[in-house]
Fold each of these.
Amino acid sequence: MISGRKLLVAALLATVSFAASSAIAQNAKPLKIGLLLSLSGPAASFGIPERDAAELIVAGLNSQGGVDGRKVELAIYDDTTNPTEAARGATKLIREDGVVAIVGASTGSGTLAAAPIAAREKIPMLAPNATISVTARESQSYPYVFRTMSNDLVNTKQLYEAAIAGGAKKVAIFYQEDAYGKDSATYVKKLAEERGAPIVDMASAPLKSIEVAAQAVKLRGSSPDAVIMQVTAPALGGAFVRAAKQVGLDVPIWGSMGLGQKSFIESSGAAGNGVRLVVFGNWDDPSPRQAKLADVMKAGGKSPQGFAELISTNGLLAIVEAARKIKGDITGPALRDELEKLCKVTTYSDGELCYSKDDHDGWSTDALTTVEIRDGAFKRVQ
Amino acid sequence: MYELLEFSSRGVLLGVTYGLLAFPISLLFIATDTVDLAVGAYAVLAGAVAMFVGGSVNPAVGILTGILVGVLASAAIGSISLMLGRRQKGDPLVLVLASFGFAIFLESVVLTLFGKDPFIRQPFTYFWNIGGIRISPQAGVNVVVGLLLIAAVYVLLYRTSWGRDVRASANNERAALLAGIPVRALRFSAFMLAGLLAGIAGVLVLYTSGMDFASGMHLTLAGFGAAIVFGLHGPLRGFFGGLAIGVVETISAGYANGGLASLVPLLFIFLVLTLGRGGRQGPAGVRA
Amino acid sequence: MTGVLSIVSNNSSAASRGQSILTCRNITARYGRIGVCHGVDLAVSAGEVVAVLGPNGAGKSSFLGSIAGLVQGDGEVIVGDRAIGQMPAFLRAKHGLAFVPEIRGNICPALSVQENLGLGLRMIDDDRDAALQRILELFPILKERLDAPAGMLSGGEQQMLAVGMAVARRPRVLILDEPTQGLAPAVYDILRATFAKFREDGLAIVVAEQNVPFAASVADRFIMLSDGQVVLSGGHDQLQKYDTILAAFLGSEESVSGTTRPSNVQ
């Protein structure tokens, strides 16, 4: 067995010697992996870096001889951020391109639409989504869906814990009006009640709001000592941070993982200083392991932008790791069985990957980092 | 009570943006009897160009280039309108659909050229304190530009022969032709003017709340709501419609809970349209 | 010599009377593929009034519309010595052709009377105020309604406005489609008087009418259309003489005086 660490080094070396001719055994059947990602539409901001990172990793693997002599081939399908297209894409990738595993879809709803098809065709899907229902135990698709990041419950709980760790007693919530925002706000509310320190006020705005000063004034009215933003859209998050500054809501603001993007910093402007997030990876001040992926990306002419690069490579590396353990033909069911046995695997993310029969989530709080915006960058908070 | 005052005044400031977006929509409705759903996309395009040219050359050049690009984009849909007019007489719905497609096209152009990150500029780092309410000086700029544009649009439509000809063309195309008005060229110029107004609105949105490549439809709908609430046939009504919606929106965001808060403005538009008379039966351009 | 109320440009004064100002040859009109007017010829001299008669659906409006460029069609249209048959409607208007469509279709109901007159005057380069005064002297009633939206005027007032707008820019040819439609007979007299003035000024006038007695009272000669073709033409005498027969044929029930029975009074 090749450890994740070795794999990393191999990928890095490979990318550096990118131009060198590869020595892949011609007779071995290639390992075909599908990327079912949103390369256009609203989720393109995730899908495009997800694809870029996956392509660079695969190029690195192949120049190093592939996976046990098998060349890795990617088949890419753009679901245009449309679940119907995601389902169609799964069928196409499996039936026409003959992939044995899929990384995708970029959105939870895309994965939910495509998973039944993958499960029926017995092809594992490595889902780069935090959406809880993606790995719902009662789902027919469950056996074939594996998550490549920590889920929303883990992330939200960690955010709340971090926010009150400094002693905050009166927490207010600002959330975006969609399933994610509402569900996670409700969850934090429940957590707070369990702790005996109920949430003091909540305000919300539609995803595309351009002005949220009224919401900030509303929260200011309950004089909280910390505000949690359950927001994934950088523009909305930035708008709230600026509004808070403008209306004089001068308390620590905590943001959810989705805001861990450069554009959130830009959109917050000067008001963003001191805002803290709990994130899955951080490129401004990366951990040593993430720094390696950053190097791979840079060698390929791309710069990493968010956690999208990490979660697609997590999926890809999990497939590769499982494939290495298969002696004979690599098939969907064989991969699935091996994926379920993967544990203590390290990738570019912090923490360790560990799947089991009862846990297809794989990632937990050890993959998360608390960061703070300082001088236009995310700095790790120890 | 004081809070209500703060909500209302912030609502007015938000409403100025909506009102600015309503200008091009009602102007085009008056001039061409159609609704251009790409207005928000012109605004986003103008904002994005203003941001990137502004960042690499200087802000003033950026703003002018942005507005110019907005005008050009609008001229494109104007040309489409001329071509449609030549083939089939008059169904305004065709242009509405064409403009919808054009909006989606512009959205992907902006995504490709300028990326997915939000576009925003914030030159002001301090706030004005007006009666205890902290307000960005940018809001002041918006109000001044909004008022200047109201005055300019009013004068143009109701005090110049260009405006008279535009209103005549919308009111009775045959009569306009018989009076020697080159109706199609005039409509084209109305599209250019709408692009200009949308471009200015886009630049102000860039400097106020920011936007991203996908904001176009939201901006169009915000402007459209403002434009219809007190009657589509007067640009001044559109501006005040924008103010009204802005105030309703901030007050409901301040006092109502969760999703209800964003429903209230829609409910408000619905109620005004159903119950109000608003002079909507009148022909285009009768009153301001 | 042209009087104060002259509404015709100087180069077409009485001097040119007798020679054809409007010449139409082989005019056709169609809606899509359906032809409604086939090869109609018409020539009108300065100071002459020609009536276009015909029953409903005979193609009168389409014929006039085709001349004005509002209805699809072909054929030669010459005003003075300028061929305008291939021009769009707004350019034909610039070359001296004025058209008052049915039901005063050249006014903008949403615009004020003043603005409508402004539309009529927009192609004049010289003194617009003087031109406006001429129209207001021609139709003094408009003076009192300058700020009212044109749509609020009575039918008769609208007709005066429509004619006033059409002649404000001093065209050489005035074409009217059913000017008496829906109007009180009292208005007929005003129109008659107006036509008489125009005639003196050397304007070439074409008027389509269902109302034969009215047509007979203003026209020098007539053509009659049926199924989009000229089936009969003649002079003033014949119009007078056959007035009642023609009226019966066309379905009009009025006599020359136009007072026996008010039709469609507003």
Note: The first helix of chain A runs from residue 4 to 16.
Amino acid sequence: MTNSEKITAFRTIVVKEFLRFIRIWVQTVLPPVITTALYFIIFGNLIGSQIGDMEGFRYMDYIVPGLIMMAVITNSYGNVVSSFYGSKFQRNVEEMLVSPMPNYIILCGYVAGGVARGIIVGLAVTLISMLFSELHVYNGWVLVSVFILTSILFSLAGFINAVYANSFDDISIVPTFVLTPLTYLGGIFYSISLLPEFWQTASLANPILYMVNAFRYGFLGITDIHLSVSYTIIIVFIIVLYSFSMHLLNKGKGIRT
Amino acid sequence: MTKALQIKDLKKIYDNGFTALKGVSLDVEEGDFYALLGPNGAGKSTIIGIISSLVNKTSGSVSIFGDNTDNDFALARTYLGLVPQEFNFNVFEPIGEILINQAGYYGIPRAKAELKADELLHKLGLWEKRLDMARQLSGGMKRRLMIARALMHEPRLLILDEPTAGVDIEIRHTMWEFLKEINAQGTTIILTTHYLEEAENLCRNIGIIDHGTLIENTSMRELISRLQQETFVLDLGNSITKLPDVSGCNLTLLDDHTLEVILPRERAVNDLFSYLTKHDIKVLSMRNKTNRLEQLFMDMLDKSEARGNAS
């Protein structure tokens, strides 16, 4: 395939993925917006007003970055895992497998689809948060780069989950029992400096902590983790997950017999 | 002439230890209309899966128009169009989008793909349904959608795995005409089917596979010529109670208006009719009791089974 043909193939997957989640926006875009609005009302407004400031910021303002990040993580992951597993289940993944398209285009196409949903949902949640909080951008570059990189990372993770999944149960187990606890314990609602020393150290094993803190730095200019450590962790994870995804695709794991 | 498909010593052992292919070698010439027949589980779909890279082979090699599916996979896949046995499209996608996306995977720009999709949707009688979701189509329409999808990138080799399964007679005939047309235009076609009449009508060459081994690979004409005898059923215009005695033919009276005749290959049908006419037996119509290829096919499978048991 020529480069221009590869770009056409890539664009085809991205547009298909985009239209897929837009077509069912009531299932894909609306729920995270409503859920986040409820978080703002309950944790930010009702409970948050009793908590007071967190590291010099109103509690509502403190949790906004983490809630946006949570929406980005769950939606990027959810988009790829459900779409690619759906393609496996209906066997229309074969449409791509019989084509001359290289495997990395398939992977990048699905990841771009996940990132697209992460961006749409992330922006929607950001707009909602503006009803409850006055958003200030401390460092736009950090904000955008962490947003995109986190979305890429969890799209890749969703892809791996979809490759291994053999049933619809398998695509909900990881988000329910791994992703959600890690997200909640990833410093969205609190600074890890509030935790006992042991739990502070334990929290460092949670990769989501690094993303939430880097993203919060982009908004508020505060973080529990040094920015360079966060970037290193995110990029290393992306490289590892990308390499592993390519290995699975080249081997045909779960898609070729 | 270029070989459209060259398979050499293809073996496949699945993870559960089942040997699906025991070293199949097969050539299909460019422009051919080739039937790949065999009973369920014989290995046909495994061969097709390996050719189209959906199944990993254990050993052997496959080349499509001279390009090896391992080393030159991109080129080899460009030549190939696949119509699988089972529906494998996204049922929640509009059918026009399914076609345009398929072209996109081959690097064909959307504007060009739209023109091709329009042409195929018209030709295959799906134009009115182009905006419908694939799940809204009937079984026959779904089959035609898969053919249209496989042709979006204008492949030189088209493989159809039981394309007319579950399709009514009228649509089946329309599909036959369409396949004959694209074959006449130069597309090499490999067809698997359980309708042996379909294979006999459409295909020039034939391969029969059983238990992972190619037990026959020849021309349809040569294969049919091996028939030692044919069984005909005659519908009679007048009632008869006594069987006429035609030397060399085996006759059975199915009822007073229906006669079954087993005619040896060396006997001319004219002889039979002359005799019946002489005895005032009027024949209204005549048909083969079973498809000729079906008879041969069953004989070959029986022999293959017997060889397997003997060894």
Note: Chain B has a mean pLDDT of 86.
Amino acid sequence: MDKLLEIKDLYIEAWSEERWQTIVNGISLELNRGEVLGLIGESGAGKSTIGLAAMGYTRQGCRLTSGSIKLDGRELFGASQKYLRSIRGTRIAYVAQSAAASFNPSHRVIRQYTEAPVLKGLMSQKEAEQKAVEIYHRLFLPNPEKIGYRYPHELSGGQLQRAMVAMAMSCQPDVIVFDEPTTALDVTTQIEVLAAIKEITETMNKAALYITHDLAVVAQVAHRIMVLRYGDMVELGETREMLKNPKEQYTRDLLSVRTLREEKAETEKEKIILEVKDVEATYTGREKVLQDINVTVRRGRTVALVGESGSGKSTLAKVITGLLPAIKGTITFLGKELHPELRKRDKENLRKMQMIYQMPDTALNPRHRVRTVIGRPLKFYFGMKGQEAEDRIKELLDKIELTPEKYIDRLTTELSGGEKQRICIARALAAEPELIICDEVTSALDQLVAEGILALLQDLQNELHVSYLFITHDLATVKAISDKIVIMLEGRIVEQGGKQEILAPPHHEYTDKLLASVPEMDPDWLDSLLAERASSFI
Amino acid sequence: MLKILRQSPLSARIGLGIVLLNILVAIFAPVIAPYGETTVVGNVWELFSRQFYFGTDHVGRDLFSRMVFGARNTIALAFVTTALSFFIGIVLGFFAATLGGWTDQILSRIIDIIMAFPTLIFALMILSVVGSSVYTLIFTIAVLDSTRVYRLSRAVAMDIEVMEFVEAARLRGEGLWWLMRHEILPNAMPPLVAEFGLRFCFVFLFIAALSFLGLGLQPPTADWGGMVRENAGAITFGIYTPLLPAGAIAFLTVGVNLIVDWFLHIASGLHD
């Protein structure tokens, strides 16, 4: 085997809180030709930092302190900028998480592909374009001869991500660093990208670092897996071996899938909180984005709304909250029909229906302190002031398991993702709602943090008997917490019913595809799935 | 506040020093100035001497005394005008961004119409109709300047308005004022503060231009911009006294912008 990349005792520091803090703590790794090494861990584990360091690069505010990074025997640590520039793209390439943000929107996709090889003088524009088409073909992009001549906004997220992989291949590098290439994608598109990555690394004999926080994903593509936490290596091993018997507790935590809610069938006796009947909605006035929507939520229950992006899940939330008035149908909340428009609803109804968002970063005003965020609904809905409000804020912070004294005066920007999401929950709870709409509340969070949030929501439901309408594309979450599942496709409900009923066969055709697309902790899962799909085409 | 001041970088302290110096000079003008604001004490365009530190102007008044008194008019006028124009611009801009629809259309088109006229000509028109007093001057310049502020604050607010925390506040049922004051304004601060520093300087020049045309501050009141204009002719004779009021403007501008930079640094939460 020939060693392509060799990192030894790598230490990286970052400037934060007025001093240099170690964020990568003496990591060593080796990468051979034809091998894929998975780097896995939660955010802040140092995965991306190591991925970038493999190219001799650090983000602003970080520095390589000591260690050695050898690419094909040549030292990159302390190498000249000129040398580093010459190898980047040609010998080692990088695929970023969000392809949509990494493409220049005003150039055609293929021009961005050919830019590097033409600039480096490896091939002419024409040759590069031919090569691009060839690679698009290998990556199973639809219509490979033409697709490159489109603009990035004319491609879907999954296609862009594959075009990005193609771009990384343009100069035929030996090593590719994939930094969470499928995290932003739906389960069904994720498969296409994973298949493309597998094809490239296997048939072209490349080495790759695959960075992700999803163990089930990395199990499909990596030969070996390294588990990282807080910049330290937790465990390193062969994929199959690690999945079969993980040595460390942390790895076991990552591997375990928990069920948080026991199945209890809904009964007719439970009060109906929300009833959506025959609702239709549109953005443009012509095309209907929602049609024939009928959903009921009972008191103290969780209804999961599942579907790919673009299926209308979030739109339905907008219609229920009144941000997008329905053009047909009725929404009955607590026995009374709601006005379709937000502005015409009374304060009491607004109070009883709260919302928690997907991105806690944008759902909290970065200039507000925790005290204001939680205190405002108290003042707004209940007129609480002074000591009374202060006590209630502390009580709520206790409820979401954050120490009141430590957090009450913090700016929202001074919190981690999980803490922010907890504050969002506290803000919703402050209004003492009957129904909380949770829009993908865990999809921006790490696995363990997300599980913490789900457990918290569960505890709160048991205690306060609040109902949840849970919007998600993550079926593991659905399995963990829901009582009832509603599956949506292209603005319509295709199937709905109790959890067991939906998850047990026979499924609706689409439900089947959705369920089958969720990666399993089985390294052969992707191959067998692809084989199955290929045979069904023939 | 004191804590923030203690942590301020050197550049900000210099800026604060400059602005403070100017303000002190303005306040204690009658004590500092050796001669009156408008009294003729020497010959035309005398050079620097023990008697006249900065020489004399085109009618023989002491330039140093006039600059000291000029600080009063100029700084107060520029500050009040800029503040007023920002108030108008921000309120209207935020209104347009948060309400959207027809409100936005109507406000924006009116602003476009005002902006279609060259500012100076528009100001001349208004001032010659309503007459030139300090108040009309402040108001006219503020309104004309606020069109630029409107554009900026509307654009910034539009970006913030689509964020989920604003949506969350709307869902809570918050009124317009809360949305503008508590959700949008704090996040729009950095670009607006930067613009303030810039606009503040432009106001000097604008007043000077108006003074030159006889519609700004009326002589014999001293203002720095006007003094540059009055004495500009001296340059052709190789006398550089008119550079002094110009230098004073530059000096104050640098000071204000040093503070603005520092403010920006704090407000944006950037740490190198």
Note: Chain B touches chain A at residues 163-165, 167-168, 170-174, 182-183, 186-187, 189, 269, 272 (CB under 8 Å).
Amino acid sequence: MAGKIHISLTVNGKEREANVQPRRLLVHLLREDLGLTGTHVGCDTTHCGACTVMLNGKAVKSCTVLAVQADGAEVLTVEGLAEGEELSAVQRAFIAKHGLQCGYCTPGMLIAAHALLQNNPDPTDEEIRDGISGNLCRCTGYTKIIDSVRYAAKIKNAHK
Amino acid sequence: MNPPEFEYVAPKTVQEAVDLLKVRGEWAKVLAGGQSLIPLLKLRLASPALLVDIGKVPGLDYLAESDGHLRMGAMVRVADLNRSALLKKKYPAIHDASGVIADPLVRNLGTVGGNISHGDPANDLPAVMLASEGEMAATGSGGNRVIKAEDFFTDTFTTALAHDEILTEVRVPVPLPRSGGAYLKVEQKVGDFASAGVAVQLSVDRASMCTKVGIGLTAVGPTAVKAKKAEEAMLGKQVTDRVAVAEAAALAADAATPTSDIRGTAEYKKRLVRLLVARGLKRASERAGGKE
Amino acid sequence: MAVEIDSEDPERFFVRGKGRYVDDIKLEGMLHLHVVRSPYARARVISVSGGITGNELRASMEAVGEDAGGEENTSVSFPVLATETVNYVGQPVAAVLGDDRYEAEDRADEVDVQYEPLTPVMDPERSLESGPIHRQMKDNLVAESVLGKDFKANAPIELEDTLRMARMSPNPLEPRGLVAAYDGSMLTVYASTQSVFSWREGLAGSLGMPEDKIRVVQMDTGGAFGSKGGIYPEYVVAAHAAMKTKRPVKWIENRYEHLMTTDQGRGVRAKMKVYAERNGKVKGLKADLLIDAGAYPVGGGGWVASWISSQLIGPYYIPKAYATSRAVLTNKVNLGPYRGAGRPEAAFFMERMMDKVADETGLDQAEVRMRNTTTKGWTTPLGRKTPPSKPFFNEALRAFKYSSRKKKEKLGLSLFVLVPASSGGESAKVAVKGGRVKVWMGGNSHGQGHGLFAKMLASKELGVPENLIDFQHTDTSALSSGVGSWGSRTAMLGGGAVVEASRKLKAAAKKKLGKRYSKARLLEGEYEAEAFFKPKDFLNSLGANMASARITKVGMGTIDEVVSYYDVGTPLTPYMVESQIEGGTAQGLGEVMYEQVLYSEDGQLLTPSIADAGLIHSTEMPKVVAMTGTHRSSLKHGAKGLGESPTIGVPPAATRALEVALGRRFSYLPIEQEKLWAVELPKE
């Protein structure tokens, strides 16, 4: 029986510690040990992106990262996008443009959009489509998600 | 879809990692970006006793030209390849491939070393290495060695690396003037494995005659395939020579041994190889001539 | 041990990651269930030991929800846990429990099953000539339907084709799952579901418990598309385990399990024959359908045969028709509903033949369809009431700007009738307390945002602003009865029930308050009203699609734009109508170009991941233009059905557009990649 490993990481700006089995996936650390259930599991095979979080500033699929790999890392989940009650630009845009239906892919989409806009503040529609191409949505047909990301860029750029 | 138990160590040096691999033998496995290995663990298709995570070894993520080679540390992320202006300009085949591997999120973690040492014939970088005279530098308990790409991919999910060897660097020679490359992949949808993929790397002289040609094939055999006869057929020929191109394309298809699957029949994949080789030669030669 | 579900505006909730899905539930002492499944498509079970097995839990599954009401073949039951034979890859054989999901999966090793593999029946075409899968049956025929009368045809044009639609997996992003908890008397089940009432009925039946000892609570549900209306073996096992261990038990499906063991849709082959005049008028239709019903004669197999063939004539006037269909067993997971559930099949088969008539006569595809439309409602020889289609199709063609666009573009069209699942009715409850209004519907949103129109309708009826109205998740303890959400029914029936319940509540308040009645006084009091709404009229509606295809730079055909024109009656929330159309269009296109579930000859799944199953990404999604015709229905709130329209109308239109762009006929979906090339691939 492999022993547990002590890890510490920063999640949504807070120092967190945990003792985890080496096999524990980051998504389960977040959801079950840290209670951050906004990050979802959709496909188990690194395709759907429902589990997308920011790991050291990059969007990754947390179902395909071991919690121990994230030792010392900075993680941002959907719960960390808003500042208190103040929703972030992508969150507001997804509400304004109805970029969601069942809500299951939404946290991953928001993080992917957040990452995209961080690297590319004014993306073309093609760049938006490419930026969220690692995230599946079964409800919206993406149309309103793309509208939402475009609108989020607009909101962000208006505040500069 | 949850991994079985294993131990985990994150050594700080390559030597430490190699020592662990030597001591633990076949039951130890190297973890890099995890984008191929962790899915296998979740399916419980792999059940190593120990994972040796080389992600915390400093200094394995360099990407630069030196001593006549482009050198890519094993832990360079695929996304970093795709962002590199140097690659886009001078190593377009690698740049092309880095944009079609999996999806943007997987590329943020997936590594050069992992893509190559996983030995998956459907991965995209192996064919590029076969086309580009790539070499793999490995460190093992017996010391360091360099393995040519054409000797590296020995079978499906099997490479020339010994169980106690770690791939540390992937490199290709700095191309001659008037060189170009391309990687073309036909996939169903973003993130899919290729129905077929073709890598071409070539150099031409002032008369547009091919002086060097490399052709690698993805997902049409037990390993990535080096289409040697096709390469030879193009040597000394101009890429505008339609007969030569057609012959090379046919020879490349002969080298392919695809199987029928959900992406298409074996025959279709061979025809795809012919189409992509012809197109790849054209695109690579355009790039050699300074276009795009 | 109650699970709290917030009723804040779901969009604000979801973007914060505060949705409450079933896998988010964490209860004290909760165990995780892992199911041990058959690795064979067909085998005799010699022995099974370890974990919970069918020797302990002797129970079988019942068809409930959308699957109920077919001609049930009762000679063979579908066991919760197999003890004698297994008949599809992934069939549950045993279950184990662990303190967490990892440990539960590890415990699968404690189960020992000995199998004797048998040759599976995989090809429905050969099912009837193969020996019976179940020894209790004399052959593999599940259901047979004959509609209309055979006729002798005498027409200058006779056209035939064999058409096929692959099996598909519903693939909601949230997989199936539940948490079952037992307090010694009451079983509470938290569910990702389309119908809490079907779940209660099914669990009660399988477990032999009275319904009043079971409470089913719906959690936020991350899509369903047909997969969450009925019950599955895992639910019965989890409930059994919770009662046995007196600890809450969670089971969450993984995607591999979804693709192996969640009922699949489509899987139909049609031999179609039409008889037409030179002027394009179709005089007769003969059809023979073969349906791949999967391993057990429960579920979709029982009702799909007659359901599809009854709809074959669609919106057209075809005086003679004769349709035979058979549903046959194979060693695959059962057939079940997938968005459209029979409607897309009928439309695809008919529309493909209309295009064939166009090609044969040289008439434009729109003209052929127009000539076969009707100006009067009628009942087809296959027994379906059909609304007049000519005026609507004229409207649609104008909206599409078809005649000008066809000059420059490669277009495909479709025209269809949406037959919603409007029988059976639906319930709703409205309550006023503490200055706020609560609304429940018996069949609930599983991701479409039905709460928005429910609030809107209650607001309109009661005159109370929407910000004072809370939409509640469905819970069997909140309503006295209910049906479920599927078959494009909820806006009409659930919406109708909200209107009725609101009116009842208002009438009660008026009676009590008399002349003092005002909106403010209404909110000061406490009132409750429940209504069950059953429409009297048939509520079929019409829809049309146009798709435009182009050739990509790579040289392959692709869809560039999909335009819809659907009669949605009075649209309740316009952006939701658009959202439904956009999402359904993605599924319709997936069906044309990518989506399918494939098995090898020995019954192994060849498409074990969500990527293999072919879900469309943002990068493959074309432009969608969603237009609606608004012809009020006879209902008080004027609504008509919508949810399934895009999966009905998009596949034939998109298939035709690709056909026009590529110059080759397509009869099978999905179209193989090889056939999408516009350039000639080099040959050997």
Note: Chain B has three domains: 7-52, 63-173, 179-288.
